[in-house]
Amino acid sequence: MEYEAVIGLEVHVQLNTRSKMFTRVGTGFGQPPNTLTDPVVLGLPGALPVMNRDAIEKSIKVGLLLGCKIAEVCKWDRKNYFYPDMPKNYQISQFDQPICEGGKVEIEMPGENPAKMGSHRMVELTRIHLEEDVGKLTHYEQDSLVDYNRAGSPLLEIVSEPDMHSPEEVFAYLTSLRNSLVAAGISACDMEKGQLRCDANISVRPKGTTTLGTKVEIKNLNTISGVRNGVEYEIRRQVRAIEEGTEIIQETRRWNPEQKYTTPMRTKEMAHDYRYFPDPDLMPVKIDEAWIERVAKELPEKPFDKQRRYQKDMNLPYSATSSLCGDHLLCAYFEEATDLAKSATKTANWVVNDLLRELSQANKVDEFSEESDKVMTPQSCPVSPQNLAELINLIEDGKLTNNVAKELFPEMFTSGKTVSDLIKEKGLDQKSDNGEIEGICADAIANDSDAAEKFRGGKEGAINALKGAVMKATRGQANPKVVDETLRRLLS
Amino acid sequence: MSQDSPIFKTATELSADLTAGKISSVELTQAMIERVETVDEKVHAFLHLDKEDALAQAKASDERRSTGECLSPLDGIPVGLKDVISVKDQPLTAASKILENYRSPYDATVTVKLKQAGAVVAGRLNLDEFAMGSSTENSAYGPTRNPWDLERVPGGSSGGSSAAVAAREVPLSLGSDTGGSIRQPASLCGVVGMKPTYGMVSRYGLAAFASSLDQIGPFSTTVEDTALLLETISGHDPLDSTSFPKEIPSYSAELKKPAQAGVIGLPKEFFGPGMDDEVRAKVEQSIEHYRSLGYQTKEVSLPSTDLSIPVYYVIATAEASSNLARYDGIRYTSRSNRAQNAIDVYAKSRGEGFGAEVKRRCLLGAYGLSSGYYDAYYLRAQKARTLIRQDFERVFKEVDAVLTPTAPTPAFKFGEKSEDPISMYLSDIFTISTNLAGLPGISVPCGFTQSGLPVGMQLIGQAFEESSLLNIAHAYDRDHLYGRQAPNL
Amino acid sequence: MSEDAPMDIDYVANLARIELSDEEKTTYQKQLGDVLKYFEKLQELKVDGVEPTAHAFPRYNVWDQDESKKGFSALEALKNAPQSRQDQVVVPKVIEE
Which of B211, B325, B332 sits opposite A80 (nearest CB)? Predict the structure, then answer.
């Protein structure tokens, strides 16, 4: 029998606000333990929460970007359960009035090959709500340590419908969601830093049936590949269980990324009696049309819309657009360069090949340095979009050969010098002086009368020997187009 | 002790004496410390008194004054705090074993305001554990005794705050009132106690019992002093989202303006059976006095009154069960040494650290919120709360204040009600609906029973109309000054 | 309410994470049963169409701008902790996450 998996995801995204959700102490990653704390974060007696307006605005932005309905009024509820990483033993969250409802995430499945676009579809969202993050527990042999730096950071929970059916779709969903959120500037979505975390609800049913199978929740899917592998494992486990006639228990399982399997988590008795009630310490949020309109004006173009525009309006090949559109900073760089450059396709190719290569090399080296946090971006790299456009235009104008340009680019990247600086420095000015080239061409014809005769006799390829001689004489600095024209004129 | 001693003076008088140079803050604070050392063995209003710290604040006040600087009328005057209000580097036990070793690393907003006013913030005052109770018998550190009769309770939960003022250990103190916890002990101890409108005084730094009902408020011997302390601690606080943005007038200046006699409502539901005869007689005398001052009185009805106790206990215990979850033996509260794992830490630390009433209320609160019961209890209580609020809104279209007894009986004996939660809960019957409606209420001493126990009347005002309420209370108080009578200790 | 659905004291004690002795269980079961019985008048009340009161004086959008301020040092944060190590709070082993 064939089986179909039904998968829903709960994605937690940390918003990149300066201060926490309900108090104004700072947020951040990698700070000394328990230094991003205050009476509110630690849940001291008497501490009270005060909302962060920016976190609410960022949530509205995400909601608009994903086509959700933004609530006119939303409120805060306490979710009560005991856990050492949660200072108050209740989490301030949103239960029955979330900030966003509905919405969609466009996903693209892999095409036949990297040059071919895959199929697109919309994954439905249930809701998005805002809550506070918990602290971080580190487990040791004998005990556990708690650092509350992360506790109280604004956390957005994006809940999808059970609308995905394969690990590939899950991967596509997460990739697309992440690209959109990064483009909106609301989070860096770095999974390594816990800025994006994911739980999956998975069930399996015979293909063609519509009733849902027993749902299993998978936690600890903390890398993109972990999500793909964990989901894949769990689907296989459930199919095997059905085939073997074992019962699938509704439970929470934990993905073990080292051993690559899921194990049941100790079932917390009454884990689901969260005793939600409206938080009496906080007032509700009212979101009016004017606010929504203001936020809507700041929305970025959605990555897939941008990709379609690049293909349609700029005639860029699919492969270039797919490399560009996963990275909004790269797109911004590209758009700035292509505004100045004479060829959009060439610009795209330079960006996705040469610029990306140099960037990844630069960031690889930096990984071991003290400031591994400081990633070099297209914007912060030494080659400005203007420099790249200048380089492309010199090639287009026939003033620089592609080969030389390819050699110069890494040097531009390391030195920060412009292409014209380097050309001058190295005496590489391409010879386009027609008088000088004409002389050299005439010499070449005179020195190789054999080739000249063959060409005149109709043997087109013979001209290459003459071109080679001219290039040799000019040490490659003659513009090939000019050389070709000159030789043909002299030979006619 | 001589009646000329500074401990028998009101804060208003002490303020004048300090200004006139008749006494220094250090002398005053020293007198207060001596008084505590003399009488608190009997009364047990204090859980802790940092004498050095108090004298250092007094000295700083005297130094300011010597350079011509005076921060406010309260500069140099000692104020005691219920042990649920945070003061940086001082203990905050909430009269619970679980907070035995805790010291607050920060100041509550009211503490900041008192310090800015130059007051000498001195003493941690006893209470029912986590403010849950009406007799101060629920303190893990032993009960406070009523200064008028040491065999009787001072009321609660702010029994330490009321007893300390009644015993003349401090001229002023702060308590907190969730269902009557300021007004009822004020009544039982024969002092003035006021719960402001919800949102007038910041709750930041007050260990929460029931967040939607808690308010901090003053204790003093006169309404005049209450006005002085209230204007010092009131005002919008950006650290408390439920704090109300409103200009605070000088209540004490307002008291000096001639006030027009208004209309006083007498809710018939509050004068039914179950009230002690002597209490009834005293309250009726005070009504007569208002009539003699030209006030009109009018019978009114608050039909939802009999709902107030169940509504209150459902809401308050639900909020408390969540608010007290943080006392878990992990970050700052005492940890059971029997704990083998994290789950154990919670159940054992809380089982060992909480007293019986706190346990009962946390259990009741968890039950009322639990799956399947939320709609029948919590949500229903919130709806009934709306009806109680609407009762008052209707009544306040016709009257300026509502007058009731503060408590159905004078101070009762230790142990009289402690085994029967419901009879204890009923001692708050007259004060609870004020909290549910968010309104200001003040208890003013209105005489003594034949056996010498104080009786208090309660005046309830309109939301955010503290000024008017204080004026009405003052009109009675200045003619009687029952709060100025001190017990023999 | 209390008669047809008595409070499951073990369930509630576990929810509230309070260890109770057998004696306490018996006492509280009885006392809270009485309290719930006393609360029955709430069940009889007609509340159709009545809006719940969550706040005595509700307002909207009580918030701060997103500005970060300095917090505690690790020392201040852990001053009251029953047990700490490496600037973190020590808790007995957490059995499974």
Answer: B325
